[in-house]
Fold this sequence. Notes:
Shape of chain B: globular
Largest interface: A-B, 74 and 78 residues
Largest sheet of chain B: none
Number of strands of chain B: 0
Strand order of the largest sheet of chain A: 1-2
Strand content of chain A: under 5%
Radius of gyration of chain A: 23 Å
Number of helices of chain A: 13
Helix content of chain A: over 70%
Radius of gyration of chain B: 22 Å
Oligomer: heterodimer
Helix content of chain B: over 70%
Amino acid sequence: MSRLARLTPSLALLPFLLYLTVFLLVPTVTVVVGAFAENGRFTLANITALADPVALTALRTSVLLSAVSAVIGAVFGAVLAYLIVSGGQASWLRRSVISLSGVLAQCGGVMLAFAFIATIGYSGVLTVWLRDHLGIDIFGSGWLFALPGLILVYAYFQIPLMVIVFLPALDGIKPQWREASVNLGANGWQYWTQVAFPLLRPAFLGATLLLFANAFAAYATAAALVSQGNPIVPLLIRSGLSSEVLLGHQHLAYALAFEMIVVVAAVMGMYGLLLRRTARWLR
Amino acid sequence: MRTSPAFRVVRVVLLLLFAVFFFGPLLAMLDFSTRGTNGSRTWAAWANLVEDPELNRAIVASLLLSLFTVVLMLLLLVPTMIWVRLRVPRATRLLEFLCLLPLTIPALVIVVGITNVYQWVTYFLGDHVLNLTFVYVVLVLPFAYRAIESALSSIDATTLAEAARSLGAGWGTVIGRIIVPNIWSGLLSAAFISVALVLGEFTIASLLNYENMQVVIALLGKSDANTSVAASLAAIAFAFVLLLLLSVVGRSRRTEGS
């Protein structure tokens, strides 16, 4: 077969490749190039502007928010996932928890912010009830709209995401392993600490990283909740996009978006490595 | 799994605590959105879902967006995936990489870089909220890819295609009348998850200044919180039903296969 004839079938992939080039690769390259350019010339000014106190504080808050919500999500999500798995494979509980998790983890955003505004916002149901009946003010000075509130609302979609990501790993734990360790004289505690936990550790750490990246890149919840100031990187990007001139650097939005790519790509890279280790055991 | 009575009690207690955490806010939304003056109940906020012209337009826009996104995604992805499997297997890894790439590149990053592309889109097609379809296809790609891929690898596509070809079928017939009917449940899953994602999308629409459902919900939150809470709860419930149906579809596929 000639070289040309061999390549002909590949031509059918062109529409797909072209589409992804225009709507995925071009935007990504635009961000990367834009982070290193000003008025068509190469510059590091945008990148150095990331060391600006405002941008640094936002980065620190973002990392803190992502890390705390990832750890909370991972721990509670793993527990919930275990509770579901121990209820059997095809239970209605399992199916509805997974579906609800899918909604909260992937489709939520703005709606989750309103769920908490309706619950513990200034005129939220729980706030009003506690104020009227017990005289307790849980609204305080509006912590819901600051970092503690963000952590709480983020947990509301991080725990479900953990359930989705961690369930396959728990399903991969074979009852034979437990039987084997019991046969060898292990008690329940020894089985968990010396067999199950070490096997699940890569999957757990990997899922935690995924949760971190998820929280770091999340925008909708914070945008709907926080209207004053730009405490985290995604919100700083918003103000960079809408006002175009921030701290005197037009391209700061590009630089911040580039920063986000770097952080998320690094975290997802580690996640990929851990996933490969998990796959060795849990299939 | 062996369960002691103590574990069973702990399990129920923990599940109840999780239920309070997850259903508490949802029930609060229901209460909040039906709260009238002086402790009375009113469904005015829910009536607004169809009566408020701005919200109504945005809901219709989001529904149309999810429809168009599903159609364009299927048209783009399904023939490509089948073709790669049958004719260009060496592109398998490339296809997988490209389809999963949007998981690593956040929507927020895409929206920062896509302004120029959208200037062209607007230039050719006019300024319309449905233009969002193009970038939404990219957004749903990883989830749709996984759904279709799992359906596609559960059938022996090569043998089916060879049988059809040897009986004189053209490639169009092979893809449209042989493979697609066999991966129907995978396509359905891909469509459901795409609809759920598009209905919940806020980031891109809001930053490109288009008004889809979520953008209007967020806007209304400042003036009429009851209505936006009602709309949020309705959307969550709708997405939940979609995903529940999806899990039933996925289960019937597994039982067919085994």
